[in-house]
Design a protein that fits this description.
Number of helices: 18
Oligomer: single chain
Number of strands: 11
Radius of gyration: 24 Å
Shape: globular
Order of helices and strands: HHHHHHHHEEEHEEEEEHEHEHEHHHHHH
Structural class: alpha+beta
Number of domains: 2
Helix content: 55-70%
Length: 462
């Protein structure tokens, strides 16, 4: 979550305040450790009831203002508000059963997350997958710690969770602040996501096998990307697996949405993602030769290893792609973005004509490009003030986007995950309404309209 906040604020913000950010990270870590130790004996110094009431007010405000949101923003606010409302009521009740329910809730969340991370790391084998396995085992260990009653009989659940959260977020802030400070002047934070700090080659670059089994280094693509006209928008195109399938697919809601759709003949459709800035920049990565989509071969190609690298190709524009296939299922439009940064990213990234189904695919390419384009957009608009850091940190979509990013990097970027990530980022970059006061005004007007409609309905029935 801290990574995404700092990404949107930009490298200039971090370079200017890196020492303050690192100090805040250290303080957060110390507070996290103190909260954890304080909870071990069951006698809490932490004002748990006051925290519960503050969380209750925040959840009620989020739920009240959720109706003024649009699309995904509205849904995400309702989810966050409902979850926080449940947690706050359990905290305020101060009953032993409530403490146990909180422990089971957090324990189940960590257990499910750890198991998913373990399974995806073992199957996909992306770079640093062993570290992801260790992280999954750690999450399961934390889940066991929450679920078993020793030593506080669940009374320390909330301080434990807050302590762990502050410790990891503090460490992330210190790491990003120190690493970003050492980046070259024109480098970006997003490069920490896909580039090795000791090399100019992306982490996912590599060799792909040729027909005779030998290895070949991909040649750099030529040509320059032209700059767009002022006012042009950035559009993320997503073809969902079920929406882009050539025939009717079997009904598997979650799998169809985030992984792949399967038709009656067993043919798998994974969907597609692309990014477009007018007709000047178009980022759409495909394998040069179609990958075998049969279930047996598909399972083999899930591993993000070098032997599954194939030659890739970049399509030239959206109209020709839509004409040869179909119109994109979803379009996410951004008005504010950093075109020069996107231009530099694309000039570097397109040198590697490599495709890997789970590691360097169309969705990961679009996600990296979108992060490069949005880096520093919020910070530049807010003038680099500290208030923007606090404001964006409290935005519900930041939490959701960070969870999507975490899940995708420990599994694989898919069109469904890229779609949700782009929607969450759009809600952050282009919030509607633009302020809490405007949100309150819109929510009040919406509530007034609902009451008037209800009165008219009752009058019609009478």
């Amino acid at each position: 979550m801290i990574r995404l906040v700092l990404l949107l604020l930009g490298a200039d913000f971090i370079r200017r305040y890196w020492h303050v950010l690192a100090s805040v990270g250290v303080i957060w870590g110390v507070i996290g450790i103190s909260l954890f130790i304080d909870a071990l004996d069951g006698v809490l110094v932490f004002p748990l009831t006051l925290f519960g009431y503050l969380l209750l007010l925040e959840s009620l405000a989020t739920l009240f203002l959720a109706s003024s949101g649009v699309g995904a923003q509205k849904t995400l606010r309702y989810v966050k508000g409902g979850l926080f409302l449940l947690i706050s009521l359990l905290i305020i009740s101060s009953h032993s059963t409530s403490n146990m329910l909180l422990a089971m809730l957090f324990g189940a969340a960590f257990a499910i997350g750890g198991c998913l991370q373990l399974a995806s790391a073992m199957v996909v084998r992306f770079p640093n997958w062993r570290l992801a396995v260790a992280g999954g085992v750690g999450q399961i260990g934390i889940a066991i710690f929450f679920i078993q009653p020793y030593p506080t009989h669940y009374r320390g659940t909330i301080p434990y969770c807050l302590g762990i959260g502050l410790l990891f977020s503090g460490w992330s802030m210190v790491w990003l602040a120190t690493r970003s400070r050492r980046l070259p002047p024109h480098a970006s934070i997003s490069e920490l996501s896909f580039r090795n700090a000791s090399s100019d080659r992306p982490l996912d670059a590599g060799l792909y096998p040729t027909a005779d089994g030998s290895a070949m280094v991909p040649a750099a693509s030529g040509g320059e990307v032209r700059m767009r006209d002022p006012g042009a928008t950035l559009t993320v195109h997503v073809w969902t697996p079920s929406g882009s399938a050539r025939s009717a697919t079997l009904n598997r809601p979650v799998v169809d949405r985030y992984i792949a759709a399967v038709d009656a003949n067993g043919v798998i459709s994974t969907g597609h993602a692309a990014l477009e800035v007018s007709r000047d920049i178009y980022i759409s990565l495909y394998p040069a030769q179609e990958i075998d989509r049969s279930p047996h071969a598909f399972a083999r190609t899930l591993r993000a290893t070098a032997d599954n690298n194939v030659r890739g190709r970049y399509l030239t524009d959206y109209p020709s792609e839509a004409k040869s296939w179909c119109e994109s299922t979803e379009k996410i439009v951004f008005r504010d973005y950093d075109l020069p940064r996107l231009h530099r990213f694309w000039q570097h990234y397109r040198r590697e004509e490599i495709y890997n189904l789970t590691h360097r695919n169309c969705s990961s390419t679009v996600t990296y490009a979108l992060e490069a384009a949005l880096e520093g957009v919020v910070g530049a608009r807010a003038g680099g003030h500290w208030w923007s850091f606090i404001k964006i940190l409290l935005t519900p979509e930041v939490w959701v986007a960070s969870q999507i990013h975490k899940r995708a990097t420990t599994m694989a970027w898919t069109p469904g995950l890229t779609l949700d990530y782009a929607r969450a980022l759009r809600a952050i970059v282009h919030p509607r309404p633009l302020s809490w006061i405007a949100s309150l005004q819109l929510a009040l007007r919406h509530s007034r309209r609902l009451r008037l409609a209800e009165r008219r309905r009752r009058g019609d029935h009478t």
